[in-house]
Specification:
453 residues, alpha+beta, Beta-Lactamase, Hypothetical protein af1432, 2 domains, two-stranded antiparallel sheet, 14 helices, 7 strands, 11% strand
Amino acid sequence: MKTYPLRVFVKRVLLIRLGVAAMIIALLTAGITYFIQQKRLEQQVVDIGRQGITGLIRRVMDRVEQQQMEPLAALHQALATAAEIPVTYRSGRFVFVQFYDRSGAVFAEGPTPGSTSEEAAKALAEARPLVFPEAGQVEAETRRTADGLFIYSVMPLVDRLGSVRGYARGVFAVSAEAAAAMGDAVLRSVLLVLAIVFGVTAILYPVILHLTRQLADYSSNLLDANLETLVVLGSAIAKRDADTDAHNYRVSLYAARLGEEIGLSADDMRGLIKGSLIHDVGKIGIPDAILLKPGRLEAEEFRVMQTHVGIGVDIVRRASWLRDSVPVVAAHHEKFGGDGYPQGARAQEIPLTARIFAIADVFDALTSERPYKKPLGFEDTMKILGEGRGVHFDPSFLDAFAGIAPGLYRKYAGHGGESLRQELVAVVDRYFSAGMESLYYGSEARAVTGGTF
């Protein structure tokens, strides 16, 4: 199923689909109506034919019994008498009749008086094989030719004792009036269905649009709340670690700018931003004595510190909305050369977003003041990053970062406060925009929202 922006789906795709549905329903209704009208006319012709044959057999049997005539001679006489008074019905008239026995031998046939479609009717009858229906059974079918609409029927000739003495098949030419009435009935049904469907659509569409806007608002509010919770969680951990949330803001901005520079997809950008904001969420499980220790960690203390990655992954995996941040949370301490932790992954084994984040994280760590160190200048920072090329960092990503690093350093390095937060808000709004424009309908539907935090 194709994915559409919700606004496009509601304002254009939904209308088109409703129109197509209306046409399909109308066509189905037309077909059903035509079939019903055809069967009704066929039954009417069968009834007419049955009445005619019943009368014919009665006249034949009267002649056989009263005048001691041979059945075949009585039939011919009865047909001749009937031909003197041709009968035309409102729905049409029989234009060809044929009588045959159980062996298939034809003993009487011909066009009815006044018929104008003799050749077409005869050809239509003779194109069909002879059938021998039992008493009470009738076969009928409708055929449209260049000469008009015909109904072909076969009926058994049953005597007064219920025995089948022969068979009659005939071609009934539907009158132009009856054919037009069928067409009018179909057209009326189609127009009625279209009127109903489009009328209902006209009534429901504003309701659907209103409900969709409400859905967009609810989704926007919900996802705004998710983002606020995300930032609050990341800030809480950052403040516990460094008494400031500026690191989270800066590293998220660095990572986002680098992601844009290398052409990261919008979906990956969202995962990168989420992961950057909560990359150290697992530190909530690290004891203060280790987390806040000003000096170098002992080997066992460092082993405990490393567990914050697993703790963070366990936390974010519990929320479906945060699962796209798992690659950053799980692998932000891996190194391109394979010397990182916790998996010791190397090169392309490290998730794309984690390789991007690693550069942003170290760049901010080097250019920021910490309780145990002063910030490094830009040149020294880039020198250290260069030494990690292919060892700690993905070379191609590091080259891309080198091109934007001077501007990022001047704009964000060492900065904090409200201005930095507003910068991050602008980036988030670009990838987590609110409302119907960012909600999607389809098999890969997704809903993202931005907001303020």
